[in-house]
């Protein structure tokens, strides 16, 4: 079962990214309740991802990248930016959610303008890293 967690992680990242885009579209149309529900769904997917990711890396600490040539530096650039932003996005997401929960919507909007694209980048690059590590090259 542990071997299936990277696939689950990629699916959770893809679902979270999809929910983020749908949530953004909902708020652009003035659908605040739908926006809230979609964003909470994205948050839930990200929390499940984090639990699954930590579980996998406790059981299996390292999966080496097998690619060679030009793809190797490309992979590591994507991976490094993904990891750095994955760490940075956690407090941004928390702050964004807290501001919305407290009804501080103007402050929520100001930080969400940064949180959304960074969170999307982390989700999408998570899927790309999965494919590069487990599907395309390995």
Offer a few descriptive terms:
mainly alpha, 0% strand, 138 residues
Mean pLDDT across all residues, rounded?
95
Tell me the radius of gyration.
16 Å
Strand portion: under 5%
The chain-level structural class is mainly alpha
Q: How many domains, as an integer?
A: 1
Secondary structure elements and pairings:
Elements: H1 5-28, H2 32-59, H3 71-101, H4 105-136
Tell me what you see in this structure.
It contains 4 helices and no strands. It has 138 residues and is mainly alpha-helical. The protein has one domain. Helix 1 (5-28) runs antiparallel to helix 2 (32-59), helix 1 (5-28) packs antiparallel against helix 4 and helix 3 (71-101) runs antiparallel to helix 4. The radius of gyration is 16 Å and the shape is elongated. The mean pLDDT is 95.
């Amino acid at each position: 079962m542990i071997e299936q967690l990277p696939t689950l992680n990629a699916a959770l990242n893809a679902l979270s990214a999809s929910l983020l885009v749908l949530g953004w579209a909902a708020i652009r149309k003035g659908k605040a309740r739908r926006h809230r529900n979609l964003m909470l769904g994205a948050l839930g997917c990200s929390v499940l991802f984090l639990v699954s990711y930590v579980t996998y890396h406790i059981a299996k600490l390292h999966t080496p990248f097998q690619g060679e040539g030009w793809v190797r530096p490309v992979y590591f650039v994507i991976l490094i930016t993904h990891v750095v932003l994955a760490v940075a996005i956690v407090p941004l997401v928390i702050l964004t959610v807290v501001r919305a929960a407290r009804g501080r919507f103007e402050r929520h909007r100001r930080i969400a303008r940064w949180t959304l694209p960074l969170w999307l980048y982390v989700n999408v690059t998570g899927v790309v890293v999965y494919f590069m590590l487990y599907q395309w090259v390995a």
